[in-house]
Write a structure and sequence with these properties.
Blueprint lengths: L1 H45 L11 H32 L7 H19 L5 E4 L6 H7 L4 H7 L13 E4 L4 E5 L6 H7 L4 H7 L13 E5 L7 H6 L10 E3 L2 E3 L2 E3 L2 E4 L5 E3 L4 E9 L3 E9 L2 E11 L6 E2 L4 E5 L9 E8 L2 E3 L8
Antiparallel strand pairs: 1-2, 3-4, 5-8, 6-7, 8-15, 9-14, 10-11, 10-13, 11-12, 12-14, 12-15, 15-16
Length: 351
Protein backbone atom coordinates (compact mmCIF):
# COMPACT_ATOMS: atom_id res chain seq x y z
CA UNK A 1 0.00 0.00 0.00
CA UNK A 2 2.75 2.29 0.93
CA UNK A 3 4.64 1.38 -2.18
CA UNK A 4 1.61 2.17 -4.37
CA UNK A 5 1.15 5.52 -2.65
CA UNK A 6 4.82 6.31 -3.20
CA UNK A 7 4.58 5.45 -6.94
CA UNK A 8 1.47 7.51 -7.27
CA UNK A 9 3.28 10.46 -5.71
CA UNK A 10 6.20 10.13 -8.13
CA UNK A 11 3.74 9.91 -11.01
CA UNK A 12 1.98 13.08 -9.92
CA UNK A 13 5.31 14.88 -9.58
CA UNK A 14 6.34 13.69 -13.05
CA UNK A 15 3.10 14.94 -14.55
CA UNK A 16 3.56 18.30 -12.81
CA UNK A 17 7.10 18.55 -14.17
CA UNK A 18 5.99 17.66 -17.69
CA UNK A 19 3.15 20.19 -17.50
CA UNK A 20 5.50 22.81 -16.18
CA UNK A 21 7.98 22.15 -19.00
CA UNK A 22 5.22 22.34 -21.59
CA UNK A 23 3.95 25.55 -20.10
CA UNK A 24 7.44 27.09 -20.21
CA UNK A 25 7.90 26.05 -23.81
CA UNK A 26 4.66 27.82 -24.74
CA UNK A 27 5.82 31.01 -23.03
CA UNK A 28 9.15 30.88 -24.86
CA UNK A 29 7.34 30.56 -28.19
CA UNK A 30 5.21 33.57 -27.34
CA UNK A 31 8.33 35.70 -26.52
CA UNK A 32 9.90 34.62 -29.80
CA UNK A 33 6.87 35.83 -31.67
CA UNK A 34 6.98 39.08 -29.76
CA UNK A 35 10.67 39.45 -30.58
CA UNK A 36 9.94 38.79 -34.25
CA UNK A 37 7.37 41.58 -34.16
CA UNK A 38 9.89 43.91 -32.62
CA UNK A 39 12.34 43.00 -35.41
CA UNK A 40 9.70 44.08 -37.90
CA UNK A 41 9.32 47.36 -36.09
CA UNK A 42 13.07 47.82 -36.14
CA UNK A 43 13.15 47.34 -39.91
CA UNK A 44 10.30 49.77 -40.52
CA UNK A 45 11.80 52.50 -38.42
CA UNK A 46 15.31 51.92 -39.72
CA UNK A 47 14.11 53.24 -43.06
CA UNK A 48 13.42 56.52 -41.28
CA UNK A 49 16.96 56.59 -39.97
CA UNK A 50 16.03 55.61 -36.38
CA UNK A 51 17.47 52.43 -34.83
CA UNK A 52 15.35 50.68 -32.15
CA UNK A 53 16.90 48.39 -29.58
CA UNK A 54 15.69 44.80 -29.32
CA UNK A 55 15.71 44.73 -25.59
CA UNK A 56 13.51 47.82 -25.23
CA UNK A 57 10.00 47.45 -23.94
CA UNK A 58 7.10 47.92 -26.34
CA UNK A 59 6.21 51.16 -24.56
CA UNK A 60 9.67 52.64 -25.13
CA UNK A 61 9.72 51.45 -28.72
CA UNK A 62 6.37 53.09 -29.32
CA UNK A 63 7.51 56.42 -27.88
CA UNK A 64 10.71 56.26 -29.90
CA UNK A 65 8.77 55.55 -33.06
CA UNK A 66 6.53 58.57 -32.48
CA UNK A 67 9.59 60.74 -31.87
CA UNK A 68 11.32 59.46 -35.00
CA UNK A 69 8.27 60.23 -37.16
CA UNK A 70 8.15 63.77 -35.74
CA UNK A 71 11.86 64.33 -36.44
CA UNK A 72 11.44 62.99 -39.96
CA UNK A 73 8.60 65.45 -40.64
CA UNK A 74 10.65 68.37 -39.33
CA UNK A 75 13.63 67.27 -41.43
CA UNK A 76 11.50 67.14 -44.56
CA UNK A 77 10.16 70.63 -43.87
CA UNK A 78 13.70 71.95 -43.44
CA UNK A 79 14.75 70.49 -46.79
CA UNK A 80 11.76 72.05 -48.50
CA UNK A 81 12.72 75.50 -47.18
CA UNK A 82 16.42 75.25 -47.93
CA UNK A 83 16.24 73.74 -51.39
CA UNK A 84 15.06 76.85 -53.32
CA UNK A 85 17.65 79.08 -51.61
CA UNK A 86 20.44 76.71 -52.47
CA UNK A 87 19.30 76.49 -56.08
CA UNK A 88 19.43 80.28 -56.48
CA UNK A 89 22.48 81.27 -54.51
CA UNK A 90 24.73 78.26 -54.97
CA UNK A 91 23.66 76.63 -58.22
CA UNK A 92 22.12 79.25 -60.56
CA UNK A 93 21.37 76.79 -63.36
CA UNK A 94 18.26 78.59 -64.60
CA UNK A 95 20.38 80.87 -66.82
CA UNK A 96 21.58 79.31 -70.09
CA UNK A 97 25.33 79.27 -70.67
CA UNK A 98 24.98 81.11 -73.96
CA UNK A 99 23.12 83.96 -72.32
CA UNK A 100 25.76 84.27 -69.65
CA UNK A 101 28.38 84.50 -72.35
CA UNK A 102 26.44 87.27 -74.11
CA UNK A 103 26.07 89.17 -70.85
CA UNK A 104 29.82 88.95 -70.38
CA UNK A 105 30.42 90.36 -73.84
CA UNK A 106 27.96 93.14 -73.16
CA UNK A 107 29.74 94.14 -69.98
CA UNK A 108 33.06 93.98 -71.80
CA UNK A 109 31.59 96.24 -74.50
CA UNK A 110 30.50 98.81 -71.94
CA UNK A 111 33.88 98.68 -70.27
CA UNK A 112 35.58 99.21 -73.61
CA UNK A 113 33.41 102.29 -74.20
CA UNK A 114 34.78 103.79 -71.01
CA UNK A 115 38.32 102.50 -71.41
CA UNK A 116 39.72 105.28 -73.60
CA UNK A 117 37.80 108.55 -73.92
CA UNK A 118 36.12 108.27 -70.54
CA UNK A 119 39.34 107.36 -68.77
CA UNK A 120 41.00 110.61 -69.75
CA UNK A 121 42.09 112.43 -66.60
CA UNK A 122 42.62 116.14 -66.05
CA UNK A 123 45.79 117.52 -64.47
CA UNK A 124 45.65 120.99 -62.95
CA UNK A 125 48.99 122.74 -63.09
CA UNK A 126 50.56 123.56 -59.72
CA UNK A 127 52.95 126.43 -59.06
CA UNK A 128 56.44 125.67 -60.32
CA UNK A 129 55.41 122.69 -62.50
CA UNK A 130 56.64 122.28 -66.06
CA UNK A 131 55.30 120.13 -68.90
CA UNK A 132 58.20 117.74 -68.35
CA UNK A 133 57.23 117.40 -64.66
CA UNK A 134 53.64 116.61 -65.59
CA UNK A 135 54.63 114.09 -68.26
CA UNK A 136 57.00 112.28 -65.87
CA UNK A 137 54.38 112.26 -63.09
CA UNK A 138 51.88 110.45 -65.34
CA UNK A 139 54.45 108.20 -67.07
CA UNK A 140 53.87 109.91 -70.42
CA UNK A 141 56.04 111.82 -72.85
CA UNK A 142 55.86 115.38 -74.12
CA UNK A 143 54.50 114.15 -77.46
CA UNK A 144 51.47 112.65 -75.69
CA UNK A 145 50.77 115.91 -73.85
CA UNK A 146 51.06 117.84 -77.12
CA UNK A 147 48.90 115.27 -78.88
CA UNK A 148 46.05 115.71 -76.40
CA UNK A 149 46.17 119.41 -75.56
CA UNK A 150 46.29 122.81 -77.22
CA UNK A 151 49.72 124.01 -76.14
CA UNK A 152 50.79 127.18 -77.91
CA UNK A 153 53.80 127.86 -75.67
CA UNK A 154 55.43 124.92 -73.94
CA UNK A 155 57.64 127.17 -71.81
CA UNK A 156 54.82 129.26 -70.42
CA UNK A 157 52.19 127.30 -68.54
CA UNK A 158 50.30 128.82 -65.64
CA UNK A 159 49.05 127.47 -62.28
CA UNK A 160 45.43 126.37 -62.59
CA UNK A 161 45.80 125.54 -66.27
CA UNK A 162 44.34 122.12 -67.09
CA UNK A 163 45.77 119.42 -69.34
CA UNK A 164 44.17 116.21 -70.55
CA UNK A 165 46.07 113.09 -69.49
CA UNK A 166 45.51 110.12 -71.82
CA UNK A 167 45.33 106.57 -70.41
CA UNK A 168 47.88 105.48 -73.05
CA UNK A 169 50.71 107.05 -75.00
CA UNK A 170 49.23 108.50 -78.16
CA UNK A 171 47.13 111.40 -79.41
CA UNK A 172 43.54 112.58 -79.65
CA UNK A 173 42.50 112.90 -83.28
CA UNK A 174 39.40 114.54 -84.74
CA UNK A 175 37.99 113.14 -87.98
CA UNK A 176 37.97 115.67 -90.82
CA UNK A 177 35.81 115.69 -93.95
CA UNK A 178 37.03 113.19 -96.54
CA UNK A 179 38.81 110.97 -94.02
CA UNK A 180 38.09 107.33 -93.27
CA UNK A 181 39.30 104.93 -90.63
CA UNK A 182 41.59 103.32 -93.20
CA UNK A 183 43.18 106.62 -94.25
CA UNK A 184 43.71 107.70 -90.63
CA UNK A 185 45.28 104.35 -89.76
CA UNK A 186 47.63 104.54 -92.75
CA UNK A 187 48.53 108.12 -91.93
CA UNK A 188 49.87 107.16 -88.50
CA UNK A 189 51.01 103.67 -89.48
CA UNK A 190 48.53 101.98 -87.14
CA UNK A 191 46.50 98.79 -87.44
CA UNK A 192 42.93 99.58 -88.38
CA UNK A 193 41.56 96.78 -86.17
CA UNK A 194 43.47 98.13 -83.17
CA UNK A 195 42.05 101.61 -83.68
CA UNK A 196 38.57 100.11 -83.88
CA UNK A 197 39.09 98.12 -80.69
CA UNK A 198 40.52 101.07 -78.74
CA UNK A 199 37.60 103.30 -79.73
CA UNK A 200 34.83 100.67 -79.57
CA UNK A 201 34.01 101.06 -83.29
CA UNK A 202 31.91 98.23 -84.68
CA UNK A 203 31.27 99.59 -88.16
CA UNK A 204 34.16 101.62 -89.68
CA UNK A 205 31.87 102.91 -92.46
CA UNK A 206 29.86 104.87 -89.89
CA UNK A 207 32.74 107.11 -88.84
CA UNK A 208 31.45 110.68 -88.42
CA UNK A 209 32.99 114.05 -89.20
CA UNK A 210 34.36 115.70 -86.01
CA UNK A 211 34.33 112.34 -84.19
CA UNK A 212 37.24 112.10 -81.77
CA UNK A 213 39.52 109.10 -81.64
CA UNK A 214 42.36 108.08 -79.38
CA UNK A 215 45.22 106.80 -81.51
CA UNK A 216 47.39 104.62 -79.30
CA UNK A 217 51.07 104.85 -80.17
CA UNK A 218 50.67 107.74 -82.64
CA UNK A 219 53.01 110.73 -82.36
CA UNK A 220 52.12 114.36 -83.14
CA UNK A 221 53.20 115.27 -86.65
CA UNK A 222 53.42 118.96 -85.88
CA UNK A 223 56.19 119.72 -83.39
CA UNK A 224 56.72 122.58 -81.00
CA UNK A 225 59.41 124.09 -83.24
CA UNK A 226 56.98 123.95 -86.15
CA UNK A 227 54.60 126.09 -84.13
CA UNK A 228 57.26 128.75 -83.71
CA UNK A 229 58.23 128.78 -87.37
CA UNK A 230 54.77 128.69 -88.96
CA UNK A 231 52.86 131.93 -89.43
CA UNK A 232 49.80 132.30 -91.65
CA UNK A 233 48.35 135.23 -93.56
CA UNK A 234 44.70 136.20 -93.24
CA UNK A 235 42.43 134.29 -95.69
CA UNK A 236 40.39 137.41 -96.38
CA UNK A 237 40.87 141.09 -95.72
CA UNK A 238 37.90 141.38 -93.43
CA UNK A 239 36.97 141.67 -89.77
CA UNK A 240 36.48 138.73 -87.42
CA UNK A 241 32.85 138.35 -86.35
CA UNK A 242 33.20 135.31 -84.04
CA UNK A 243 36.27 134.04 -82.20
CA UNK A 244 37.58 130.63 -81.17
CA UNK A 245 36.05 129.43 -77.88
CA UNK A 246 32.72 128.81 -76.16
CA UNK A 247 29.73 130.20 -78.02
CA UNK A 248 26.03 129.63 -77.32
CA UNK A 249 26.85 126.86 -74.87
CA UNK A 250 29.15 124.91 -77.19
CA UNK A 251 32.69 125.11 -78.54
CA UNK A 252 33.28 127.23 -81.64
CA UNK A 253 36.43 125.69 -83.08
CA UNK A 254 37.53 128.39 -85.48
CA UNK A 255 37.25 132.01 -86.58
CA UNK A 256 34.36 133.49 -88.53
CA UNK A 257 35.13 136.31 -90.98
CA UNK A 258 32.62 138.68 -92.49
CA UNK A 259 32.52 137.77 -96.18
CA UNK A 260 29.86 139.00 -98.60
CA UNK A 261 28.63 136.37 -101.02
CA UNK A 262 31.27 135.47 -103.61
CA UNK A 263 34.24 137.08 -101.87
CA UNK A 264 37.63 135.49 -102.77
CA UNK A 265 39.09 133.16 -100.11
CA UNK A 266 42.85 132.67 -100.13
CA UNK A 267 45.12 129.90 -98.83
CA UNK A 268 46.84 131.14 -95.66
CA UNK A 269 50.02 129.26 -96.65
CA UNK A 270 51.26 126.90 -99.34
CA UNK A 271 50.33 123.24 -99.23
CA UNK A 272 48.37 120.41 -100.82
CA UNK A 273 44.57 120.18 -101.03
CA UNK A 274 43.55 117.02 -99.21
CA UNK A 275 39.79 117.56 -99.58
CA UNK A 276 37.56 119.72 -101.73
CA UNK A 277 33.84 118.97 -101.69
CA UNK A 278 30.69 118.82 -99.61
CA UNK A 279 30.71 117.99 -95.90
CA UNK A 280 27.74 117.81 -93.54
CA UNK A 281 27.54 120.97 -91.46
CA UNK A 282 30.43 122.64 -93.27
CA UNK A 283 28.76 122.95 -96.67
CA UNK A 284 31.30 123.28 -99.49
CA UNK A 285 34.70 122.99 -97.83
CA UNK A 286 38.41 123.04 -98.71
CA UNK A 287 41.08 121.45 -96.49
CA UNK A 288 44.77 122.17 -97.12
CA UNK A 289 47.67 120.28 -95.55
CA UNK A 290 50.64 122.59 -95.15
CA UNK A 291 52.88 119.98 -93.56
CA UNK A 292 52.34 116.80 -91.62
CA UNK A 293 50.13 117.50 -88.64
CA UNK A 294 49.08 120.99 -89.77
CA UNK A 295 45.97 121.72 -91.81
CA UNK A 296 43.58 124.61 -92.44
CA UNK A 297 39.87 124.29 -93.21
CA UNK A 298 37.71 126.81 -95.11
CA UNK A 299 33.94 126.25 -94.82
CA UNK A 300 30.52 127.50 -96.08
CA UNK A 301 31.81 128.35 -99.57
CA UNK A 302 29.53 128.98 -102.51
CA UNK A 303 32.10 127.80 -105.08
CA UNK A 304 35.24 125.63 -104.95
CA UNK A 305 38.15 126.60 -107.19
CA UNK A 306 40.63 123.80 -106.37
CA UNK A 307 40.44 120.03 -106.47
CA UNK A 308 41.64 117.30 -104.12
CA UNK A 309 45.32 116.53 -104.73
CA UNK A 310 46.26 119.97 -106.13
CA UNK A 311 49.15 122.00 -104.74
CA UNK A 312 48.42 125.61 -103.84
CA UNK A 313 50.62 128.61 -103.08
CA UNK A 314 50.32 131.02 -100.20
CA UNK A 315 47.72 133.69 -101.09
CA UNK A 316 46.17 131.68 -103.96
CA UNK A 317 42.40 132.02 -104.30
CA UNK A 318 40.91 128.63 -103.50
CA UNK A 319 37.15 129.37 -103.21
CA UNK A 320 34.34 131.91 -103.09
CA UNK A 321 32.53 132.69 -99.83
CA UNK A 322 28.96 131.57 -99.37
CA UNK A 323 26.19 130.41 -97.04
CA UNK A 324 26.21 126.61 -97.47
CA UNK A 325 25.91 124.06 -94.66
CA UNK A 326 24.94 125.14 -91.15
CA UNK A 327 25.21 128.89 -91.64
CA UNK A 328 23.01 131.88 -90.80
CA UNK A 329 24.46 134.10 -93.54
CA UNK A 330 27.40 134.50 -95.94
CA UNK A 331 30.73 134.24 -94.11
CA UNK A 332 33.98 132.25 -93.92
CA UNK A 333 34.65 129.75 -91.16
CA UNK A 334 38.41 129.11 -90.79
CA UNK A 335 39.91 126.33 -88.69
CA UNK A 336 43.54 125.52 -87.92
CA UNK A 337 43.91 121.81 -87.20
CA UNK A 338 47.03 120.69 -85.37
CA UNK A 339 47.62 116.96 -85.10
CA UNK A 340 44.02 116.34 -85.99
CA UNK A 341 42.49 118.79 -83.51
CA UNK A 342 41.32 122.39 -83.91
CA UNK A 343 43.37 125.11 -82.20
CA UNK A 344 42.95 128.84 -81.93
CA UNK A 345 43.90 130.23 -85.37
CA UNK A 346 45.04 133.51 -83.79
CA UNK A 347 48.10 131.62 -82.45
CA UNK A 348 49.22 131.06 -86.05
CA UNK A 349 47.96 134.02 -88.07
CA UNK A 350 50.31 136.95 -88.66
CA UNK A 351 48.52 139.79 -90.44
Amino acid sequence: MRRRERLTGFFIIFILLVFSAYSNSMNIGGRSKSIDTNFLKIEENSENGVKLEQNMSPELNSKLKIKSEKELTERKNDKTELKPKEAVSVFPTDQPQEKKGNDKLKVFGERKTQTMMKQIKVHQVKKGETLWDIAHQHDLNIDTLIGANNISNMNSIKPGQEFKILPVKGIIYRVSPGESLSSISRKFNLEKEKVMEDNNIEDPTKLKIDQKLILRGAKPEFSYQDRLDQKFMYPIDSRITSYYGKRWGRMHEGLDFAAPMGSPIRAVSSGRVVYSGWATGYGYVVIIEHQKGLRTLYAHNSKLLVKTGESVAKGEVISRSGNTGNSTGPHLHLEVQVNGRPENPLNYINK
